[in-house]
Design brief:
The chain has 22 helices and four strands. By secondary structure, it is an all-alpha fold.
Length: 518
Amino acid sequence: MASTPSSEVAADKTFLGESNAERVASIQDGEAHLHVSHKYTSHVQMKKQFGTIATLGIAFSILNSWVAESGSMLGPIALGGPVTIIWGCVAGAVFTAILCASFAEMASALPGAGGPYHYTYVVCGPGHRKFLSFVAGWSNTVAWWFIASSAALFLASFISGMAVLTYPDYVPTTWQVWLIYVGIVVLNTVIAIGGNRIMSLLTSASLYWSLASFLVCLITTVAMHAGKPYEPASFVFGNFSNESGWSSAGTAFVIGWMLSTYNVPGLLEEMERPQVEVPRAMVGAILTGFVTSFTFLVALLFCVTDMNEIVTSPTGVPVLVIFYQSTGSQAAAIALTCLIFVSIMFSEIGGILISGRTTWAFARDNGMPFSEYLSHLDERTQSPIRATPLSSFLSIAYGAIYIGSPVAFSSIVASSIMMLITTYCLPQAVLAIRGRHHLPPRPFDLGRAGWTLNALAPIMVVFAFVILSFPTTLPVTVETMNYLCVIVVGVWVLIIGFYFTVKKGEYQGPVLGIAPHD
């Protein structure tokens, strides 16, 4: 029996929230003009500008596994050496694939810039959806604030490392690295805001640049190593060296694997066909990322001549040292490192881009302080010109922690990954408990494998949280303490406190064009 227009609007107010429903519904001559179907909408949307290649480009530029692995090898080297690096890469790819498969399915069903907190709101029961979506929204937003800083720190470290290789007497200080970091964040923020009209072209270029740089670095490193002895396969795939202080080799390996496993929902509203393009982009980025990172790491390890020099080098950049060992030329090593540097620049721009859009999307749904101000979208640039600078300012502010404690800042970066994957798995855990029929129809459907993947995701995230909370070296000191658990729990306590003291009566959940399946 067909419902009346008034009943349709009333029903929609139950899931949109009274105040939100008023923004999207109007009744004229007894006819409701609120169309509720499986077509996902929101009250303020950005211009469509990202196609499949551009979407894959932004996903791959942020994931950029081969670049990330090349810049974060110090931890895995100390926690097992080649075994941890190579097989940690494989395990990390499996972990990421399981987590992202279900997330891609949700993005296919509910494409919107809010991402995880939209999915959580739709699949949760009516008694918990506002609270859990608020926690997911804030966790996702804070995670992207932190993530946007990680690439900037990589870039600052690369610059100081290349300076040390060129001028061995130079000893960079933490405040100098932070100033470089600030300059990089400011520059890329200007690009992310001012270059919004060409962002589709820029993100496509990032994909081609990264793949071309991968081939140049791979071929040059192997070719210029000719004439020198290569490491045997037993070293690359089987050598284990524990320099961490952990007495258990298994513990050292697992911690190193998690360190070696370092997205797209923030751009969903700017895609032409997000229901189809997002799953393609996520799956494509993971597959391309694994193939490039695994191949690159194998090639690098075959060309290592002195593992101890890599660990103790004052440059602090393992890949730079391996390039130098392989080529025997400072100029060649720096040139190859510069190729990676540009790839990381693309990652930083992508991180700032999504960080700003994530903040804007949550403010649009009244989840932020000063939501009306932060939800402003500039008509000329089609960019959230208030939310993006805020995200960058916060990156600069907590980046100052690096001056006092690089280890504490590294814990912030690690906590961003932890909070991000937690927000990704929260709606999956709800689906596993409540049933997958609460997820709307979608082009990308996991079918019978869906429930298993939904159930696996939270189990793996809990495992990751426990492992990543361990200190990477023993004995533990103030300088080597792992602050990840303190940071993550502290952020969640603040989020929950903010909800119950300020936002409980104000936050009505995201504005959607589809009702939860209660």
